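Predict structure. Chain length: 529.
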Amino acid sequence: MESGNGMMKKVMNTIGAEGREKVISHLNADDFQKLMDCLESVCEMTDFRSMMKKITPIIKKVSGAKVASKLMSMYIGDGNEKESSNKGAMDAVMTLPYYHPVPDGLRPGMAVYVQGAVPEDSKGFSVDFTVAKLQKANIACHFNPRFKWGNKVVFNTFEFHRWKKEEIRRMPFQKGEHFEAIFIVTEIGYQILVNGKHFYVFRHRIPAQGVRFIKVEGDLELQSVNVTAGPMVENMTRTFPGIYHLPLPHEQTVLGGLYPGMSVYVNGTVPEDSHSFGVDFACCQHWGADIPLHFSPRFFQEALVLNTFQSDKWGKEEKLQNPFQKGEPFEIIFTVTETEYQIQVNGNPFCNYSHRFPPQSVQLIRVVGDLDLQSLNVTAGPKMENTIMTFPAIYNPPMPYTGDIPGGLGAERTITVRGSIPKNGKRFEINFMAGQDIALHVELRMKPWRAVVRNSFLNGDWENEERKLTFYPFQPGQDFKLSIHCDNREFKFYANDQPFFDYTHRYVPIKQIRTLEIDGDVTLSYIQY
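Prediction complete.
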């Protein structure tokens, strides 16, 4: 009998390059690694069948029901599925209501993956995070797309035999279409992605640790439910796939105040129902404190307001056209100079705001209002602190990028790179150079296979590759933050502030590593040495 490895290669050959890319783009990191294992080594038939159940709905959408039917004939269901109600469909679907056990409860870093298809006549369906397999059990998170009653998604909590206050969002699902919903458990709540895009954050009302079952019911063709445990690193949890949303109001202290050469970087998304939001440069945490810079996009006025709050009263407003769009991601960079704040929005110069009193008095950056905040960072200017020199950030560097590492790499040095990957991005690479040698080559591949290849090119030859990963954070069309820390033993990479991989030094002395190169399908926002 042919191995699962051989059969999976035949499947990939049958669907062609476009089909392979579509399959890969819809898989989470764990499933992608399983697929790669099945292609590159011997895999059991049970593993092959399991993977086929995940990728067949994608193949059907890309290549058509005829191809999907042909491929489905290559494996036999395990008896727990029924035939799809859609004419001509060959997807294996689960009997509803379906209960997926979570014996030890949920904790931050874990994720729940739900895949299926919405029938043309669907009235609605639900995914419930419930504490017991009982009709009246408490429900920590009720996720309820409704087609018949308002074409909307309702979020709620059921506790002590009563429903709480509903939270409502626009419908992201289409009848007759396949979907994937990911529920990422964080300290704050459930981060929900639909078809790879951020959808909503439902804050905890009942501790996630009490959830014991994921219940799915309604008018739905359910194909899979999986619960994945996030790896624990030094008592910290890692979320997947690298999309983070900070609770508001969010505050970050600025020890010693702001000085020329320093920058403040704000990154997030404007919700569809946003009224307004604000970024305040405040003199202290007290809400009535002076605010040297108040930056306030207001959708209800279709304007952006800049102002200063001093001695318990607002100064004269400066009004500009609002550059932000509802439902769209954004980045704001505030650069401090001797005379003003220079403000960029989405990589373009937006405006300048003259100092009304010294920026050195700023001790706190506060973000408030209606937005999904993903990051807030303050980068240092060229200022001597404890004999360690930091350098100004390089904003929107041209690609390909080649730059000198000031003073050479050295131990206890961290380089931060922020950027975004275009929707059609296939790969980009980062090289740390020492003359003609490449001390570290990192190639980040999105298509046709997701991988992160690490190697060194020394004395005219490539050495052994390293590829092992615990998660894959890079997605076409999404922003990323990559921090690279160097010590005397190794490089430590962090993706979106989560440990990514380590690479033991193969080139010494590290002080001779003096050049950073970045090339490929990537747009850079800034580099901080």
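Summary: The chain is about 10% helix and 45% strand.
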